[in-house]
Write a structure and sequence with these properties.
The protein is mostly helical. The protein contains four helices and two strands, in the order ααβααβ.
């Protein structure tokens, strides 16, 4: 009787250790997924900042070129024997056109950079990402994808989030190529 109890205790201890090892593996996988997501977010923010810095540099370079062009016009005006008022009027008109064109270009660039930054910010803060089902996919394989969870055991998250969109909500295996699966983060 004591041998049976000891065997049962050993079996229970082995089961407990296996469950603890599985829990540790899952926790490590979750930590790695979270670290990968944090790295992706940091990289996206870095790219958005780089795009904004590049736009500012281009605007600064354009302003320098406009300034240099204005200097060249001024030098040309000195060489031409035309009245000061005519040269001034021509120069003012040209500078106004250049300034308007530069301002428009800067506004367009700023709008483009702002749109990119907004898109990056939206992607970083969106509660769901999307995945388009391919031939041969299943929720297990999608969850195992490094760009999704990198953990096939998290397939139930996908099932829960997309259950209502399935042809048969009781059967998680009925996903079809082309379906859009939401990936809760």
């Amino acid at each position: 009787m004591k041998k049976a109890e000891a065997a049962a205790a050993q079996k229970a201890e082995a089961q407990r250790k296996a469950e603890a090892a599985e829990a540790a593996r899952k926790a490590e996988a979750q930590r790695k997924a979270e670290a990968a997501e944090a790295a992706r977010q940091a990289e996206a923010q870095k790219k958005a900042q780089a795009a904004m810095d590049a736009a500012a540099k281009r605007a600064e370079d354009a302003a320098k070129r406009a300034e240099e062009a204005a200097k060249q016009v001024e030098e040309a005006a000195k060489k031409i024997e035309v009245s000061f008022m005519q040269v001034q009027a021509i120069e003012d008109a040209r500078l106004a056109r250049e300034a308007a064109a530069l301002l428009e270009a800067q506004e367009q660039e700023a709008a483009r950079v702002a749109a990119e930054a907004a898109a990056v910010q939206e992607a970083l803060t969106a509660p769901f990402a999307k995945y388009i089902v391919k031939e041969g996919d299943c929720l297990w394989n999608i969850a195992a994808n490094p760009q999704v969870y990198n953990d096939p055991y998290l397939w139930t998250r996908l099932y829960t989030a997309n259950r209502t969109g399935l042809e048969d909500p009781e059967d998680p295996n009925l996903i079809e190529p082309g379906m859009v699966i939401e990936i809760p983060r």
